[in-house]
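Run log // design_07
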């Protein structure tokens, strides 16, 4: 005897809910010792980038490595590391890229100032083209040979 289409849908819905519940558990630890710890964890997990996804924070990433990094984050917090020491720990292992707001130092100058330099160069180029166009005499229409 086969399952009815309605029963299949309920089974599929239950499976989808279980998968999403599993992802939600993977993203956040099960228990925090205090509301302050939960808030600090939430803040830090939004500041650190997933090294696999690269465009998602640890808080948003469903990747397995992000789960490992979240537990490393919580372990460092519980060992008494300050927020800065935690950031330093991640940077030492994964580079400055792991931070959503990289620190200002010589190796990140291009990241911080590059867009402004490109904008200034583009504006300068546009102004130069417009000035050159204004300096040219207006083009005279060539005489039509049929009119002669």
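design_07 sequence
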């Amino acid at each position: 005897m086969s399952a009815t289409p309605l029963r299949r849908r309920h089974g599929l819905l239950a499976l989808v809910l279980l998968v999403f519940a599993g992802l939600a558990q993977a993203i956040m630890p099960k228990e925090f010792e205090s509301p302050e710890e939960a808030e600090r964890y939430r803040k830090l997990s939004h500041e650190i980038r997933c090294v696999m996804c690269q465009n998602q924070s640890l808080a948003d990433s469903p990747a397995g490595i992000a789960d490992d990094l979240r537990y490393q984050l919580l372990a460092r917090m519980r060992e008494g590391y300050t927020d800065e020491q935690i950031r330093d720990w991640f940077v030492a292992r994964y580079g400055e890229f792991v931070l959503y707001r990289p620190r200002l130092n010589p190796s990140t100058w291009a990241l911080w100032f590059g867009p402004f330099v490109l904008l200034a160069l583009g504006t300068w180029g546009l102004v130069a083209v417009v000035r050159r166009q204004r300096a040219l005499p207006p083009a005279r229409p060539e005489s039509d040979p049929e009119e002669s």
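The radius of gyration is 29 Å.
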